Amino acid sequence: xxxxxxxxxxxxxxxxxxxxxxxxxxxxxxxxxxxxxxxxxxxxxxxxxxxxxxxxxxxxxxxxxxxxxxxxxxxxxxxxxxxxxxxxxxxxxxxxxxxxxxxxxxxxxxxxxxxxxxxxxxxxxxxxxxxxxxxxxxxxxxxxxxxxxxxxxxxxxxxxxxxxxxxxxxxxxxxxxxxxxxxxxxxxxxxxxxxxxxxxxxxxxxxxxxxxxxxxxxxxxxxxxxxxxxxxxxxxxxxxxxxxxxxxxxxxxxxxxxxxxxxxxxxxxxxxxxxxxxxxxxxxxxxxxxxxxxxxxxxxxxxxxxxxxxxxxxxxxxxxxxxxxxxxxxxxxxxxxxxxxxxxxxxxxxxxxxxxxxxxxxxxxxxxxxxxxxxxxxxxxxxxxxxxxxxxxxxxxxxxxxxxxxx
Amino acid sequence: xxxxxxxxxxxxxxxxxxxxxxxxxxxxxxxxxxxxxxxxxxxxxxxxxxxxxxxxxxxxxxxxxxxxxxxxxxxxxxxxxxxxxxxxxxxxxxxxxxxxxxxxxxxxxxxxxxxxxxxxxxxxxxxxxxxxxxxxxxxxxxxxxxxxxxxxxxxxxxxxxxxxxxxxxxxxxxxxxxxxxxxxxxxxxxxxxxxxxxxxxxxxxxxxxxxxxxxxxxxxxxxxxxxxxxxxxxxxxxxxxxxxxxxxxxxxxxxxxxxxxxxxxxxxxxxxxxxxxxxxxxxxxxxxxxxxxxxxxxxxxxxxxxxxxxxxxxxxxxxxxxxxxxxxxxxxxxxxxxxxxxxxxxxxxxxxxxxxxxxxxxxxxxxxxxxxxxxxxxxxxxxxxxxxxxxxxxxxxxxxxxxxxxx
Lengths: 407, 407
Prior knowledge:
Oligomer: homodimer
Keywords (chains A, B): Kinase, Transferase
CATH topology of the largest domain in chain A: Nucleotidyltransferase, domain 5
Family (chains A, B): Belongs to the ROK (NagC/XylR) family.
CATH class of the largest domain in chain A: Alpha Beta
Number of helices of chain A: 13
Organism (chains A, B): Nonomuraea fuscirosea
Number of domains of chain A: 3
Protein name (chains A, B): Putative NBD/HSP70 family sugar kinase
Strand order of the largest sheet of chain A: 6-5-4-7-8
Strand content of chain A: 15-25%
InterPro entries (chains A, B): ATPase_NBD, ROK, ROK_cs, WH-like_DNA-bd_sf, WH_DNA-bd_sf
Largest interface: A-B, 49 and 49 residues
CATH superfamily of the largest domain in chain A: ATPase, nucleotide binding domain
Shape of chain A: elongated
Distance between the termini of chain A: 34 Å
Structural class of chain A: alpha/beta
Order of helices and strands of chain A: HEHHEEEEEHEHEHEEEHHHHEHEHH
Radius of gyration of chain A: 24 Å
CATH architecture of the largest domain in chain A: 2-Layer Sandwich
Number of strands of chain A: 13
């Protein structure tokens, strides 16, 4: 997380942010021009610039406009176009997760905070801002908002595109508008579960996987797919909706408008409700986990049935698309083998026998910050998994991330 | 199909094949060298060469080895590296389908012939050879075996790859060995249903589709996927196995080793058996189609139930991967609205409501030759749908198809 920092280093960070902000606003500037704009002493400014250049945040260039033959052309300074800083934010249903990478694209840190499901967007974005602030610690390699290139945001729900090819996509999401206003940089947005799938496939349980099925069992049930080495979006942005595959024809009504969807059986609320209906008591998943660890029969029986339903759905999807890795994430996966065992059993029973030894079932490893990390991956657009994924229209504004990295 | 041809044009075709065969065997040759090898009169040879050059099958080049300054360098002739001829063969369970493209990559024709399911491979390949022969008619643009670049072959069953990355793939299929021996060209092989999906997505019902789900209801039930503009293979070559998604837990035993698979309900045999069990009489699908057209209640009720199962599976796969087009092919689709209606109904009921208006269900349009056409597409490797599809090791032998077309 954020590194400890005293008042002096805070002051220095403030000066650095000032310089980086000027370079972002004005483009290439000479040392003299920077000095006029920032009002810092020559010594302080040169000191700070030397540090920023050494870290790779700023690069020097010889000005093209300098008159020829009249002594040395003026050297200008500019933000390093090859090294953007980026923030990822996952606006989950009942909590917020942020992560950030520095100019070297190393993860600086991450932070999370739960909130009510009905928290307005203004307050969510304000909370995001505070969490991001907690990551801007002192020291080399820390996040510098002045050099921020873009923000990648995950939100709940399918980001459905219209069927009219002339439509220029739907209106911006409130989170996009508010974040852009606050940070003044492009904001890319996608389904947060798909971003978690991306995060797990780049840095997590399925790192290096070319054909990955990611399932998240949380307040909602959904997932994402990497197929043939590419993050899959689906026509109109609709894919990975494993939670809305029918498992109980004529079953409970689902938020999607259907009935008997996997989500009506395997979401956090569905599982806690079913546990209560069976006479058990658990206010949340940690309490259910305790009951499971205590060997409580009702909890084990319930999870066995839920796991079987999940495994059946996974088997159907496996037969259709043939992944080599299945990753199970989300809070419900915290119940461990009591759920994962039955999932594995039903998967084994229903997947084509020839595939049984060819698919590996794993627990997610990135935890609740997977979606925020996926948001960063979306912005950096460096992973081969994204080589064919549509880049947001905003991304064109960041030459370092589209032109330089994807010639 | 094959064009009519008399003895004289047959003789001419024989001469053309001879010349093309020599160019394929020796590489670039001068007119003089060709004359020595083929034994034809100068007039006949020059006549044939003029025709082949005019058609684009053969191109002329100035020899690099000609000594400088000693008169005109010798002109050599070579097969046009930009225009290969190709054959596609679908070795289906109970029949054989061939198609061919000429040097301009236009489809010359196609032919089919049914056979017993247990016909040995030697006889299947001999039958394929006869059918291919029926396509080598006279006239401009016809197939010339002498300029044949490669053969694309579809076979029944998943072409499963081993899990050991060091393995160089499985042993060649008997059809590959026999065809290579006979035609002396590289033979690429894939699952024939996946090739049919490719054919329909390039030239058929889903032409231009970037996200296509193809389902074939035949002696087996399977399909193929185009995802994000690429034919999808799946880890280990296992994808599109929609026929082995469980629809009746604990149901009938399936050939795959599982139970209650869609194939145990929706294959030709399963449907005819169920029809007989219900007191109906139909020896084959055309007879069932007659019963349907006569409004026979038993047939309609049966297909309604089968269609519902199919629609449920399609909905599950749709929710997972979000295609924009679903194509239904195979003999069973000949039963028309009696089957397609119930499929559509169940798809509507079980797909996410938001997707209902975003997916279009269509009948296949290429008929039984779809797989053979897909085989040709695999060889030509020109479709953007194949830009990321693994090219067979043999393909490296055909510079015109890998190096020239995919720089």
